Recover the amino acids of this structure.
């Protein structure tokens, strides 16, 4: 834990004599992130619930009034995005394993590649949006599609900002094998964002 | 010109106001929550007085129907989201770290963030009154009424305010759960946690899992209204029932968010003023967890009459959730049984909670029966039920907690006589207001109407309810007076004025920053009782 994160939690504060937070097991920041991710899962559950409700009450699905709605025909651009994001989860985990061995260069490498892949995903999604041929206002299909993928994209953007902070701090040498809660928490978030995309891709392009 | 290379540190001086605005101390933040919530309580109370004034007699007297709609919409929304939920979170913020012997919450700065989103959200919502009308489609915000065609900017501000308040709740829940799991004092095992901490734990799980769904609903509504989306408007292919589902998926568990911490506070108070341990500690814990689990499977009982709900399932689950609630009733009554009852003001409010919440539970069970609900749906019966639960339950419990912990928060006792006057006025006013609504509901008076026919025979009961409403308002005067004189001249409380059981009474009143110099040994859920009486009195 570094100087910055001291102030974030009471875990390592001067009153730690009374702080019984060193209970072993999961650290406060990592537990906090896991709980936050739980709430994020429920947020996306709400959006998915809306999607399936609309989908179940619309025949045929996708609606026939716009040929562009048929995403199943050409899922390849989205498939490339999926490959990019899933790969980034692995590179992120490589970074985690590196810092657990106290390998700071490995951490920087892993996070940097992850960040680049994350940005590539966002650019690719922006390109995909430009090629779709329908918009948010185009019926329930357009509304649900752009709400789901848009909020996922916003989460990826949030994740890249977190990764940028982690990369900056990693370059400053702030993490060690013992003190890298922020990296662990960020990587959990990144994996979560990745899993949401896999669910989205399967639902919107394949199912 | 500097003559030394190193400048000596200037002693940090912070004005009182600056200290309160920038604080990350859970106790100060807890007090901020409570004060902020009480301010919104009084505002929403004024809105309710407007509603009652209009309904005192048939015909339109004070408010045009569209203004009246804004009054009851904002009354409901503000009472629920800016008063009951945050004030209970405020007490939890103050008390939970103390009760588990922690120096602060796990994430003090996030804690401050959680608080400051509340006044911001509240102010956003209220600005609706100056933008051509606040939200006016009822606190439930059903579509299509909540769509652009029927409501103005007020509804956008309402949605954004609620998203902020929801985010505040979610971050608070993350904070509470981490604090409770990770920061307990040595020896404080899960089954030695004070009951309030258990109820806050289950409440936080509910908030964590249910609130984000409401956030997603509000975002979808916002997209519908502002970006041409088609989620909820049937006219453009949307699904109006979808809103009701995602809304109630949060808003029914929200009822337990509003009542579980109040139950926890009452369960702290009843044993102290009965001089007995809480009867059936573990049963109470499991009942709380049971309410939390079942709470997720009853939401559609708000939607029986929509015709798109599987009635037998939701009716059964709704009846089932009465079981753990009944268990708690037995816990409380058995705690009182043969106790040496001390009728101080906190105890009176706790007993008020017990009796009024019981009525709120029983009249709710009527609506769990589908055929009865078809008759009672959207009548004043429902208004009576929800106020017996949320006012008779949560608000009485909240005042019990306020009178109980005020000495800890300020170091001074509240005046007992004024407290009892407050209780009697509020108890009488409450029943005068809401009991007649049962009859009105059975007579068929619909909720959310500004006017009714003089020939309907509802006039006398409505007048009675209005008199009751103003009695409740009057009861706030001795309360406020009490707070003001006690802050200045109240009797010094000492560390433990009630001879209580839990750790917050083991430190000074008010506690110092970081709460404790040392902690007593913890061998049961009543460490202070053990400290006073040795282990002889320990029932375990």
């Amino acid at each position: 834990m570094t100087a910055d994160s001291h102030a974030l939690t009471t875990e390592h504060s001067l009153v730690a004599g009374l702080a019984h937070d060193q209970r072993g097991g999961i650290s406060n920041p990592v537990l906090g992130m896991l709980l936050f991710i739980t709430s994020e899962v429920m947020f996306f559950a709400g959006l998915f619930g809306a999607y399936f409700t609309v989908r179940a009450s619309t025949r045929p699905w996708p609606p026939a009034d716009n040929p562009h709605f048929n995403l199943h025909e050409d899922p390849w651009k989205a498939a490339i995005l999926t490959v990019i994001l899933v790969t980034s989860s692995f590179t992120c985990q490589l970074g985690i394993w590196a810092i657990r061995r106290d390998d700071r260069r490995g951490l920087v490498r892993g996070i940097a590649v992850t960040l680049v892949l994350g940005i590539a995903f966002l650019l690719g999604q922006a390109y995909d949006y430009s090629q779709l041929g329908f918009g948010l206002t185009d019926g329930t299909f357009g509304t649900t599609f752009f709400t789901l993928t848009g909020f996922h994209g916003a989460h990826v953007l949030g994740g890249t900002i977190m990764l940028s902070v982690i990369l900056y701090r990693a370059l400053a040498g702030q993490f060690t094998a013992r003190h890298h809660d922020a990296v662990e928490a960020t990587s959990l978030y990144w994996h979560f964002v990745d899993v949401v995309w896999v669910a989205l891709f399967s639902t919107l392009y394949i199912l | 010109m500097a003559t030394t290379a190193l400048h000596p540190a200037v002693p940090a001086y912070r004005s009182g106001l600056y200290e309160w605005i920038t604080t990350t101390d859970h106790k100060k933040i807890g007090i901020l929550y409570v004060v902020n919530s009480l301010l919104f309580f009084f505002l929403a109370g004024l809105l309710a007085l407007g509603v009652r004034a209009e309904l005192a007699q048939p015909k339109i007297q004070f408010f045009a129907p569209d203004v009246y709609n804004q009054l009851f919409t904002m009354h409901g929304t503000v009472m629920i989201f800016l008063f009951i939920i945050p004030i209970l979170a405020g007490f939890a913020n103050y008390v939970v770290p103390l009760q588990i012997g922690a120096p602060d919450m796990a994430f003090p700065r996030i804690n401050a963030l959680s608080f400051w989103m509340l006044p911001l959200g509240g102010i956003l919502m209220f600005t609706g009154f100056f933008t051509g009308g606040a939200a006016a489609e009822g606190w439930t915000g059903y579509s299509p009424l909540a769509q652009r065609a029927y409501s103005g900017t007020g509804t956008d501000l309402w949605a954004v305010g609620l998203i902020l308040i929801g985010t505040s709740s979610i971050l608070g829940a993350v904070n509470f759960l981490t604090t409770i799991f990770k920061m307990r004092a040595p020896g404080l095992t899960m089954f030695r946690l004070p009951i309030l901490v258990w109820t806050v734990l289950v409440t936080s799980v509910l908030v964590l899992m249910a609130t984000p769904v409401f956030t997603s609903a509000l975002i979808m509504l916002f997209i519908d209204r502002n970006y041409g989306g088609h989620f909820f408007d049937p006219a453009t292919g949307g699904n109006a029932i979808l809103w009701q589902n995602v809304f109630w998926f949060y808003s029914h568990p929200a009822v337990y968010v509003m009542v579980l911490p109040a139950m926890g506070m009452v369960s702290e108070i009843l044993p102290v003023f009965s001089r007995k341990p809480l009867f059936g500690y573990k049963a109470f814990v499991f009942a709380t967890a049971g309410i939390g689990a079942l709470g997720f499977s009853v939401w559609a009982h708000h939607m029986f009459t929509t015709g798109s709900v599987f009635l037998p399932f939701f009716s059964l689950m709704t009846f089932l959730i009465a079981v753990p609630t009944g268990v708690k009733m037995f816990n409380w009554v058995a705690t009182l049984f043969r106790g040496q009852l001390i009728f101080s003001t906190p105890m009176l409010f706790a007993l008020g909670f017990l009796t009024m919440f019981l009525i709120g539970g029983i009249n709710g069970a009527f609506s769990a029966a589908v055929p009865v609900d078809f008759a009672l749906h959207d009548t004043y019966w429902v208004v009576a039920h929800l106020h017996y639960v949320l006012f008779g339950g949560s608000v009485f419990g909240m005042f019990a907690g306020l009178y109980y912990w005020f000495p800890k928060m300020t170091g001074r006792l509240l005046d007992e006589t004024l407290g009892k006057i407050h209780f009697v006025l509020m108890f009488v006013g409450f029943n005068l207001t809401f009991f007649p609504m049962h009859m009105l509901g059975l007579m068929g008076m619909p909720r959310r109407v500004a006017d009714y026919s003089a020939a309907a025979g509802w006039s006398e009961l409505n007048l009675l309810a209005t008199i009751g409403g103003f009695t409740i308002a009057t009861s706030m005067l001795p309360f406020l007076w009490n707070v003001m004189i006690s802050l200045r001249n109240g009797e010094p409380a000492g560390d433990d004025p009630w001879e209580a059981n839990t750790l917050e009474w083991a430190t000074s009143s008010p506690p110092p920053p970081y709460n404790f110099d040392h902690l007593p040994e913890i061998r049961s859920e009543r460490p202070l009782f053990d400290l006073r009486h040795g282990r002889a009195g320990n029932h375990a």
